[in-house]
Amino acid sequence: MRKILFIVPMPFHNKSNNAGAKVINYYIKQFSSISDTSVLLTSNDDNSDVEKMIMEGDGINFITNFKRKNIFNRFIDGIIKYRILYPILMKFIPSYYRTNGTTKERLVKLLNNIEQPELYDIVIVEFPPLVLQSKVIKDFFPNAKLIASIHDVSFQSLSRSISSRKIWISDEKYVRQFKKFEISQLNNFDLIVSLSDKDSKLIETEISESTPIITISPYYDTYTYRIDKPDGIFFFGAMNRKENSESVKWFLKNVWQGIGKLLPDLKFYIIGGGVSAEFRNFCEQYTGVNILGFIDDPTFYFNKCYAMVIPLMYGAGIKIKTIESFVSGIPLICNAIAIEGIPAQREKDYMHCETPEEWTEAILQLVGDENLRKTLSKNGEAFALNYFNLEKSFSLYTNCILS
Fold first, then answer.
1. What is the pLDDT of residue 44?
2. Is residue 222 in some structural domain?
3. What is the pTM of this model?
4. Count of domains forming the chain
5. Are 9 and 44 in contact (CB under 8 A)?
6. Measuring CA to CA, which residue among 131, 84, 83, 133 is closest to residue 105?
7. Which of 108, 225, 288, 341 is deepest in the core (most CB within 10 A)?
8. pLDDT tens digits, residue range 237-269?
9. Helices (H), 284-389
10. Where are any strands of DSSP class E within 140-182?
């Protein structure tokens, strides 16, 4: 039986509310049924999520760090390093974007606790911050096959958000240097696993020709959607992620403000944890906005809405919430970034918008046309269930890795 080690940056379990954690939760548990599976968790948090992960992980060997730091070390790491030193270094050292000293310190410390690393056949590294530490991992497991599960392409995400970052060299030079660094790290792997054909194509011309790339389906939840007296539209996503909170702010300022005058009774539901006080204060200036925070099962609120809206301003990688709207049959209104990597047809499977005027027109159309909502619901669900087949995806993954 193959001996596989997953290196992950966050705890995962069946009730994880992070889209990336849902993906690794599904695939790791699938692999644990056919291989000798270990998980090295670089998160330093001793919390309920870690406990749930271990409780659910029958047959999985977990390598974690529960040791709590003393007050002095927490101050040095949490304040001096993480909040002061590393943000400063990130301003002029591109390799510190998405990977800093804290990540490397935790990783090295945990790797040194592994007995007989030469016994592992395969090491699967999840998420860019750890993928970008490939040199450290490769040196520690010289005999294992290394697999990068990238989730998104960091240089694309950086290029879209660079204007909002205060850096000390030119934007163009910073992105160029980071891209070179990311590609050099990817070339240390024996296989790259992507969650969308778009990401695969984005890097296939950059990396070594000898490094294969496969595309697998991300895991997604399916919600029962049966419209029952709808009274609003909604956004669904973790609000402690800047790309979500800033995008919702744009939507409120540029779209919702005008919609309120045309449809004064329409509500806007914001579903997702990590809501900051600053974000709440911003939303208070707009009427009809309902901030619900994290909800274990959002089905009730989905069924109160005409559509899901995803007005993302930046970000990279395939968007799980977009897939979830399709497979659940929820009518979707979104822009190019939200649908990236998902070959659905605009105006057939979903409504595509970019400008505030297009958003306003689409919302007015959907609210006023029940037949349009039913058509989008039916077409979107059929497309997604055919294109994102988890069973076929895992079969592809296992054939590539275990052969």
1. 67
2. no
3. 0.85
4. 2
5. no
6. 133
7. 341
8. 889 888 899 999 999 999 999 998 899 999 999
9. 299-302, 320-327, 336-339, 356-368, 370-387
10. 145-149
